Structure to design on (96 residues):
């Protein structure tokens, strides 16, 4: 992807939607099917994918760095319970 033309921040929106719908059939079903458990977090998932793509292709960080130092950006935190968090992207999905 990045070997032909460098991605810019302007490219990330379309790229994020494309990547998000191809993460896994299970994730697509859970986040993009009405009345599913995580349907209310689909916007947060797209933002997490956008962030990951920006870190990988614009900032040129590697997956281990993102996982170790930027993981808060790919989690969803409940504002009513800050100790509770939900992993929007898993480590193996960052490697895809």
């Amino acid at each position: 992807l990045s070997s032909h033309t460098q991605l810019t921040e302007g490219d990330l929106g379309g790229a994020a939607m494309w990547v998000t719908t191809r993460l896994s059939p299970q994730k697509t079903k859970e986040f993009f099917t009405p009345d599913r458990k995580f349907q209310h977090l689909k916007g947060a998932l797209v933002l997490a994918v956008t962030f990951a793509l920006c870190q990988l292709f614009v900032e040129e960080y590697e997956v281990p760095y993102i996982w170790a130092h930027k993981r808060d950006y790919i989690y969803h935190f409940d504002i009513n319970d800050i100790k509770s968090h939900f992993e929007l992207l898993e480590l193996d999905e960052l490697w895809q």
Observations:
- The first helix runs from residue 12 to 20.
- The radius of gyration is 14 Å.
